[in-house]
Amino acid sequence: MSNRSCTPVAADGADHRQQQLDALHENGPERLWKETGDHAHLLSEIAQEPRGMFDVEKHDSATYVQLLRTLHEARSAIDALEARSVDALSGATRREQIEAARDDTAHELDPEIVLEKIEKQADLLSRTEITLATRRAPHAASAALTRSRRIVRDMPHMLRALATGKVTAEIVHETARSLGPLEHVDRRAVDRVLDERLPDLDAAGTTRWKHAVTAAIGRLDPDGASRRHQRAARDRHVTVTPVNHGMASLNARLPARDAVLVRKRLSLEAERLRAQGDHRGHHAIMADCLVDTLLGREDAMDPTMLDIGMIITDRALIDPGAGDIAQIEGYGPVPVDCVREDLRAALREPADLQDGPIGPDGPDLRAVLRRLYTHPTTGELVAVESKARAFPKAMARFLAWRDTVCRGPHCNAVIRQSDHIRSIARGGKTSIDNGQGLCAACNLKEQMAREIERSQGSGHRVRWTSNAGLTRTTTPTSLTLPAPPQPEQPGQVGVDADSSARTGSPPAPDRSGPPAAGIGPLTEGAPGPAGRIAPPTEAAPDPPGTDTPRSREGGSTDPPDRGAPAPPSD
């Protein structure tokens, strides 16, 4: 009886929501902003005067977890609506300005009036409206206009993911910025690839998302990635920005390998000094060592030999246009030509050994080649296990190569520790399958989550479950394009009818040949065995300094869209 009585109620509720939705569509944006304003007023009143809403003595933690989840979903939907509103504002303003120009010339557009000039003027007006309506600076409003237009017109899948709370606005807008140099059809292709990767990126932070976008662009357009790398390399520079309280920020735009080596050298020196009793913070010591060395002070660092892992598939090594990506340890994906150039430089005999980076008495070996294996369908690095309780150095480094960044859900920190997913006490093994790279904070997982375990199926998936029952699944970085997902079944939701048409993603590379081989590490004078060797099964001699310190990302600006004038910036 209860089932029969509940069914009409549920049906009536669904019908009522559909009627509300139909009314909103029928009455247009005027009805939408009025309804949104009413709800915004209620939320504002509760935020200012919550009364007993947030009384922790009356409500349990699970209730607030669900509230946070609902607020996140609502915010994501609003962010998606804002992107559509900004794009619509731009389009309506352009239309009005073009009509006004025609009215001024007796309804005929004067040949001397350039359409592009009218659109730029319209974008200036739109930027001003966005600045005043959203309290953004003019430059930020201009960037929001450019990215929103790109999201709505060229990224229908990412827009839908934002509207349903599967990604954040920060990730979508950063993706739109990264797609700026591409043509419209290529942006749609990358959007489709990212949509297929959504399950793998469920728990990815902004760093992993940035790596995924970079990899998708590189696979789609390897020649273009090389050109963009060469163009970016010409923009090397050093800037000093004043900050608060008599401090300044020093920023150097460098090739990725050099920047990673600099950071690693500073981090190793900081760890050495702290081990000797220095009480300064790790990052404070790094900053002091940088200044002392550059200015030639007494505490300057001595020259030393460093190594850094650079991973590339055998296909990309032989054929840069194969579409596979390369990775730099502690950085992420880079154009294949970048690694090939560094590898050639490492193997090239210096013209003058006295002036070489290793010196006349240094070892002849400058690069160690190791053969690594990738999973046949996911493209992830795979290897073997050890009998030791602690991860051997070589195996710990392998985890850092495979995972790239901390495997904690949505974490962007650099890997600092190797962790057993299933602890030794619970029967876990010291193996690549049971290991993951984590930062120090996420390695306190027993205090953070209710359950952490490997998921069944292909690839190295780790499922994190919170005390409230929320789950996120993390995956490592893929060196090759993962196998495409199953095609959509009839009845599944597709993209909007007014959105851009779907475009096919690049085909997965042929994996019928031998296992993919990687190169790593590319060293600066670190002696070691030459040739291609399998990953170690036990503790093996490891090059000095395998730790990877925390990094800080810098910002960049949006390139203009091709085929449509970009709004001006101040």
From TrEMBL:
Report biased composition (Basic and acidic residues) as residue ranges.
549-561
The segment annotated Disordered runs over 452-570
Superkingdom of origin organism = Bacteria
Q: Give the compositionally biased regions (Low complexity).
A: 470-481, 525-536
Q: Which Pfam families match?
A: DUF222, HNH
List the Gene3D superfamilies hit by this protein, alphabetically. 1.10.30.50
What does the record give under GO molecular function? endonuclease activity; nucleic acid binding; zinc ion binding
Residue stretches making up the HNH nuclease domain: 394-444
Hey, which family's this protein in? Answer: Belongs to the Rv1128c/1148c/1588c/1702c/1945/3466 family.
Protein name (Swiss-Prot/TrEMBL)? DUF222 domain-containing protein
Lineage in the entry? Bacteria, Bacillati, Actinomycetota, Actinomycetes, Micrococcales
